[in-house]
Amino acid sequence: MNSTEIRHFLFDIEGTTTPISFVHEILFPYSKNNLLNYLHNNKISNLIFSNLKEDHVKDTKSNHYKNSLENSSESLFSYLEFLISVDRKNSGLKEIQGEIWKQGYESGDIKSQIFPDTLDFFQFIQSKNKQINIYSSGSILAQKLIFKYSNLGDLSAYITNYFDTGVGPKRDSNSYITISKSLNCNPKEIIFFTDIQEEADSAFSIGIKSYIMLRKGNSPIETIKHPILNSFSEWRE
Ligand SMILES: [Mg+2]
């Protein structure tokens, strides 16, 4: 490793540290299946309700959704199911999903899956006194839970910063500028690992060296722009 240059390692989660199948076959179905039960047993905060209300106003105006929205479990459930069905990225929905996952992880109902080479790589990075950071479109709560309750144990102590789409979309190069500023470093001092070419391109365009992960279950990638890794054990600087 060129240790004078790299200070930060930045990781995507889905398809990079964690199998895509875990997110789609376990995590999302879990929040969906436990949604009604969660709404029966938990009160929704005013902030979450107003986040939902914002989208609800637009959806009723455009006739995509016809029912009213009350702060009752049945009414919330119906609208949240609608948001899930259209794959809407509403922050209130994300917050509720995060809370459902939190309860699921804490009760032992769910355990996240991290590729085993991730832990070896984290240990290696830590031994070189470099920082490990995460950038994922999942909420920061969801990210923290994935690393805390994993098949490899609690990995949260390895991670310094978590970034979500609060810094901007993952396919927008400005997001990577914001991350560099937040890490207080030059983009050249960061390296980024992701499974999505457009994300790698965006980071690369501002000077962040990017690697594409070709994990089992990921979509095939055709790029000559970025090095491709099947596992972090192949990483050589
Ligand atoms: Mg990904």
Summarize the structure.
About 45% of the residues lie in helices and about 10% in strands.
**What fraction of the residues are assigned to beta strands by DSSP?**
5-15%
Separate helix tally: 9
Q: Identify the strand order in the major beta sheet.
A: 3-2-1-4-5-6
Q: Give the integer mean of the pLDDT values.
A: 95
Distinct small molecules bound, one entry per kind:
magnesium ion
Q: What top-tier CATH class of the largest domain fits best? A: Alpha Beta
Uncertain regions spanning at least 5 consecutive residues? none
**Overall helicity:** 40-55%
Rg: 19 Å
Identify the overall geometry: globular
- CATH architectural grouping of the largest domain: 3-Layer(aba) Sandwich
Quickly give the structural class. Answer: alpha/beta
Sheet having the most strands? 6 strands, parallel
Question: How many strands appear in the DSSP assignment?
Answer: 6
Q: List SSEs in N-to-C order.
A: EHHHHHHEHEHEHEE
Oligomer: single chain
Q: CATH homologous superfamily of the largest domain?
A: HAD superfamily/HAD-like
Beginning-to-end CA distance, first to last residue: 5 Å
Number of domains: 2
Q: What is CATH's topology name of the largest domain?
A: Rossmann fold
Helices and strands in order:
Layout: E1 8-11, H1 20-33, H2 35-41, H3 46-61, H4 73-85, H5 91-107, H6 116-127, E2 131-135, H7 140-148, E3 159-163, H8 173-182, E4 190-194, H9 197-205, E5 209-213, E6 228-229
Parallel strand pairs: 1-2, 1-4, 2-3, 4-5, 5-6
Helix pairs in contact: 1-5, 2-4, 3-5, 8-9
The structure holds magnesium ion.
